[in-house]
Specification:
alpha/beta, 9 helices, Spore Coat Polysaccharide Biosynthesis Protein SpsA, Chain A, about 40% helix, eight-stranded mixed β-sheet, about 220 residues, 8 strands
Length: about 220
């Protein structure tokens, strides 16, 4: 069985669309203290809601512990998996070789601009060449492999990079489907946001504590 784990914090603007695409899957919402309608939206969609210490790493780790599936799909609250994702995921899970691999979807933005297409191409290259997909591409992984890797570190930022580095580029597969993410976070410009992300990544690889990086990111 597949469980979908979504960390949330004040996610009412996007969560409904993300949940609507999950087609009755077993869903665990790990909420970090939302005071908006996030919890109500999740419960109405049939998801289980658990309270978790605020911070994406902590929330993802708590959601994984609460999930009952043999396979886990980690997803952001503003990411909508496109039609056909269930078949793609089923094919990946059915292959015994993928018990020690992980799959990520193609990154896509709900923006028709050329700047969005350029960013999508850059993310595709980063995923393929560097083995560094981010959490907004989803992560499909067997529970056994997830547990063997030690799961998500309970850190406020870079939890996705930390885990995929432990998975390793050779054990990552790009799935034949899109994870459509809201472009709202890029409202102040793709270049500005991209530069900030790159700075944060460089600081992480330089050994700066994720807690310090989060202050810069926010």
């Amino acid at each position: 069985m597949l469980s979908v784990v979504i960390p949330t914090l004040q996610a009412e603007a996007h969560l409904g669309r993300a949940l609507g695409a999950l087609e009755g899957a077993d869903i665990v919402i790990a909420d970090g203290g939302s005071t908006d309608a996030t919890r109500e939206i999740a419960q109405k969609a049939g998801a289980r809601v658990i309270d978790a210490p605020r911070g994406r790493g902590s929330q993802l780790a708590a959601g994984a512990k609460a999930a009952s599936g043999d396979w886990l799909l980690f997803l952001h609250a503003d990411t909508v998996l496109q039609h056909g994702w269930t078949g793609v995921a089923a094919d990946f899970m059915a292959d015994p070789a993928n018990q020690t691999r992980a799959g990520v979807f193609r990154f896509a933005l709900d923006d028709a601009s050329r700047a969005a297409r350029r960013l999508e191409a850059l993310v595709a290259w980063r995923t393929r060449a560097l083995g560094l997909p981010y959490g907004d591409q989803g992560l499909l992984i067997s529970r056994a492999f997830y547990d063997a890797l030690g799961g998500f570190a309970e850190i406020p930022l870079m939890e996705d990079v930390d885990l995929v580095r432990r998975i390793g580029r050779s054990r990552l597969a790009t799935l034949d489907g899109n994870a459509l993410t809201s472009a709202e976070r890029y409202g102040r410009g793709y270049l500005r946001r991209g530069a900030r992300n790159l700075i944060c990544l460089a600081l992480y690889f330089a050994g700066v504590a994720p807690e310090r990086i989060e202050r810069i990111y926010r």
